[in-house]
Amino acid sequence: AQSVTQLGSHVSVSEGALVLLRCNYSSSVPPYLFWYVQYPNQGLQLLLKYTTGATLVKGINGFEAEFKKSETSFHLTKPSAHMSDAAEYFCAVNPRLLEYGNKLVFGAGTILRVKS
Amino acid sequence: EAGVTQSPTHLIKTRGQQATLRCSPISGHTSVYWYQQALGLGLQFLLWYDEGEERNRGNFPPRFSGRQFPNYSSELNVNALELEDSALYLCASSAWAAQETQYFGPGTRLLVL
Predict the structure, then answer these.
(1) What confidence tens digit (pLDDT) does each residue in B77-105 have?
(2) Which residues of A touch B4 (CB under 8 A)?
(3) CB A106 to CB B104 under 8 A?
(4) Distance from CA of A14 to the nearest CA of B (A)
(5) Is A59 at the interface with chain B, CB within 8 A?
(6) Given an 8 Å threshold on Cβ–Cβ distance, is A103 in contact with B106?
(7) Cα B79 from Cα A17, distance rounded (Å)
(8) Mean pLDDT in each 10-residue stretch from start to end of chain A (116 residues)?
(9) Cβ–Cβ < 8 Å for A36, A44
(10) How far apart are CA B106 and CA B92, in angstroms?
């Protein structure tokens, strides 16, 4: 079964510090990979995605992620945290398998807190 | 470009009633997806509609149903509401040429009393 594991349900960083949110997946074939952000009482906003090509992908708001097939990982990073980055972040995979019918499988989410 | 829109933003129902949630996809998108985000249960896939047909269904009982209209908008119906149906219901859409990428709306928060 396809699954997504986000290490750490809560991550706290100081403003200006590096942000690292971890995501590992299990899949029999390399999936499509996504990071979404959810601000309180809002929907999900797509941060970035990996489908094919370059394994280091850049997204909005200064975030980037690297697909590492050998480690089945897709960790999200940002060099310098800003107070406005405080939100919940979800890693998701599209398994690219017929039986999954294009649905996204989500991790449990990581709440990012940014301290001033 | 307008994003995915959902209505209503909030909905309060009592047990046993029916709820209808609506979604308009991004212009040009043909696929619509529904997800449930319930407290403690995470984001769960409900339904996928494409070109008016139901293409995939998540592990939910039959009282969760929906449809997609010719203009690609969609509605989700939940019959015989139960307390545990209280959740944020998110709609997403994707383009025919890039179905793997889903864009989400703001959600409808359903509260069942």
Answers:
(1) 999 999 999 999 999 999 988 888 999 99
(2) 43
(3) no
(4) 27
(5) no
(6) no
(7) 48
(8) 91 98 89 95 95 94 96 97 97 82 92 97
(9) yes
(10) 9
